[in-house]
Amino acid sequence: MWVEAKGGRKKESKEKMLAVKEKTSAVVPVASYATEFRAYKDDAWYTVCVLFHGDTLTVKYSNFSPENDDAFRPSDFQNMNEVENFKFRFRPLSKQVQDEECRLLSPGARVCACHSFAHDDVRFYDALVDGVCKSLCVAG
């Protein structure tokens, strides 16, 4: 293989090229936990990091152990419609609304709300605001 080098082209050895290929095929994050993914197991949204290794796309869940990672390969999709549906399971991180901003929401606003199934099982789902209850906060 020929590579461009300062002062002209030079021939690289096959061994050196294979070593370079091995180094560049490592799993490299596309972005560091800056994406949300709607998981197939429960349709909840999770903060994730997306990794590529060969033809495998791995979804790593923030604050979960590696055994919870999901790996997807081209053979997992039967047609382009399934690929398109998969694409819509990703989105940028949702903006967190602070307590003092809740009163600014109006009925019909789309939000990502949490539901606690247990003290260690909180999941996030898309929801529409039914109404906003304005109350005074009492410092304790």
From TrEMBL:
It comes from the Eukaryota. One of its GO terms (molecular function) is chromatin binding. Signal peptide: none annotated. InterPro entries: SAWADEE_dom (IPR032001). Residues 33-133 form the SAWADEE domain. This is SAWADEE domain-containing protein. It comes from Phaseolus vulgaris (Kidney bean).
